[in-house]
Amino acid sequence: MIKFLDEPWGIKDISSLHVYMNGAARHYTNTPLDFTIEGKMDCEFPALWSELCEELQEHDRLTASAFRRVSVIETHYWNGSSSLSPYISDKIPLFNKRGQCIGTLWNAKKVKPHSSLIYINQAKPSVLTSEPPIALFGDKELQVIFLLMQNLTCKDMAKILNVSPRTIESRLNIIYQKVDVHSMHQLKDFCKSIGLDSYIPESLLTKGVQYL
User: Fold this and answer.
1) Helix, strand, or coil here: 50?
2) φ and ψ at residue 46, rounded to 5 degrees
3) Of 14, 32, 87, 119, which has the most beta carbons under 10 Å away?
4) Band of pLDDT at residue 127, cut at 50, 70 and 90
5) pLDDT class for 9, splitting at 50, 70, 90?
6) Positive or negative torsion for Cα 44, 49, 51, 57
7) C-alpha to C-alpha distance for 44 and 129, rounded to whole angstroms
8) CB within 8 A of 112, min separation 6: which ones?
């Protein structure tokens, strides 16, 4: 059923041993085609994400004991990317005829930032990414832009970035000059037009598993 789907899907048994992965799941997990996944634990995979094995197995156990779907955000270098990427991973318990949980069915999909404005503007939901669409801004400027797009004040940005509000204002002025705008409102419109409203700086991401 899941073999030909273009989203990553896989199956694990009740002991967290891998049973099956479709092609998209192998690509997502950076698993070599010649690596046999059947009967392997997460820690045995020849991939960097195996360092999350304890967190991933805890996700398995929680799904099995809760008897329901459990969702997390997994942040790592997925799909062979050199940048950290957050993905939503769902695990669904699998049952036998006696109602006993015998394993989990899992899948992963890119995080999509949602706003009620997409219904008003009839805009297509975008996918969250840690790769900026243009190379115009430096890392510190991109941090400010990201926080600005979350509607934070200069004071709030300063607290998060551990700098002074004056430093934030200085960075904003440099950004204004680069794109020839004169206000936060104009800057937000510019950022939306080039796709920066779906960008999150990698420096603000942390590898790991976060429960929803």
Assistant:
1) helix
2) -80, 60
3) 87
4) confident
5) very high
6) negative
7) 28
8) 125, 126, 127, 128
